[in-house]
Amino acid sequence: MIQWHLASASNNTPDLSLLGPVPLELDLEWLSTRVNGVDKYIQYFLLGDQRQPCGYAPFFVHRSALAYCLGETTVFHIPIRRYAMQGAPLCESPALLAGLFKPLGETVGRRNVVFFEGVPLGSPLAELLTSVDSPVRDLFHVVLHGPVYMRRLIELPVGAQFEDYLRTLGSKTREDVRRTRRNFTVKAGGPVKTECYTEPEQAAELAAAVAHVSRKTYQYHLLGLGLENTPEHIAHLRAMAVAGWLRAYVVWIGDNPVAFGLGYREGETYYGHQVGYDPEVSKLQPGIYLHTESMVDLLAEGIRHFDFLPGDSLYKQRMSNKSREERHFYLIPRGWPGTAYARSLVAVNFLSETIGRQLEKSGLKERIKRMVRAAAIKRSTG
Q1: Could you report the per-residue pLDDT of 46-90, keeping only the tens digit for each?
Q2: What pLDDT was estimated at residue 377?
Q3: Is there a single domain that holds both residue 165 and residue 313?
Q4: pLDDT (tens digit, 9 = 90+) per residue, 296-321?
Q5: Strands 246-253 and 256-266: what pairing?
Q6: Is position 335 within any domain?
Q7: Which of 168, 189, 320, 380 makes the best surface tag, with the fewest CB within 10 Å?
Q8: Number of CB atoms found within 10 A of residue 261's CB
Q9: CATH of the domain at 294
């Protein structure tokens, strides 16, 4: 019987041709770009033959923390090492997927956790994690992380042009898009241009423009999710460009960058990783203008699939034409101390969700969110 096993460090890169196209987030070369410190590394498992396996499961391993949160406030956290995967393993036969979790558990150990991000509901992995009689539950506590969300996508046929894309959207959205594109250039207060960045020598200019916009966003001030103009970020963008993945866009009004979209291309698919815009021009809907400018260029390049990645928003809902339900899962080893970690995490999550539902029902949740974001934006423009 063929079995899953941890690939040895001396293994050559396996031939994954039996498994079909490998998504960018599971590509070993792509994952290796995230290894920028001694405490980060990639471990992957293979099913069957080492050179041409019929199953493949890569994990990005890094130091992290198991956070216990009430709303957006972290009450306390427990340091752990996290084995993270975006999506799901590739496996020739779904029936063989369950065999992955015994060697995975042995590798993870008792004090660390597994994190599956963005697992499509209805997929073999989701069925395995949610089934009450799953063999996975003999080894791990399966803890849901966050609510079910819709992953937004754009899917278009070969040869589609921008107007073809617009016809896949709702009529009100089409009208809004056309109005936004007309008004933006007229009301911007200066000459407007959209620059596309794909080359290594453009990395420094791109990093500076992105940081200029990022420092003005509420995400930068409130969530600490901003992008800085550092040598490390420039080097990362340059490496992405050298590999042929980088495809980023910046909207300029005169000499000032006002919006950016940072993404990566793999074949006919574009992954939109990060976007941001200057709140001072928010009335012009710079996010929509940026996206439509990007789509004109992407379609001209033969890119037919746009992945907005995990998380949802009104902007993504309006600009997408396909969607699927996804969810995040923690796998915490049974025994000490994992069982204590899992049970306390479930209890805190339940309390947080109960409070959140009450706040949402009363309307306070949205008002608090708007107030906090408005305060962050005010600080960013001050």
Answers
A1: 999 999 999 999 999 999 999 998 876 788 999 999 999 999 999
A2: 57
A3: yes
A4: 999 999 999 999 999 888 999 999 99
A5: antiparallel
A6: yes
A7: 189
A8: 24
A9: 3.40.630.30
Could you give the CA distance from residue 155 to residue 138 in angstroms, rounded to a whole number?
A: 39
Same domain, 163 and 272: yes
Q: pTM for this structure?
A: 0.89
**348, 193 contact by CB (below 8 A):** no
Q: How many CB atoms lie within 10 A of CB 228?
A: 12
Is residue 382 one of the residues assigned to a domain?
no
Residue 37, both tokens = 């410190």
Range of the domain at 86: 4-150+326-377
Return the closest-CA partner of residue 77 out of 327, 344, 335, 329: 344
Q: Which long-range contacts (CB under 8 A, 24 or more apart) does 353-358 make?
A: 355/70, 355/71, 356/71
If you ran DSSP here, which 8-state letter would residue 13 be given? P
**Residue 271 main-chain phi, psi, to 5 deg:** -105, 110
Backbone angles phi, psi at 170, to 5 degrees: -65, 155
Same domain, 145 and 161: no
Helical spans, DSSP H, in 188-285: 203-214, 218, 231-242
Number of domains in the chain: 2
> Is 298 within 8 Å of 306 (Cβ atoms)?
yes
Residue 267 phi/psi, 5° resolution? 65, -125
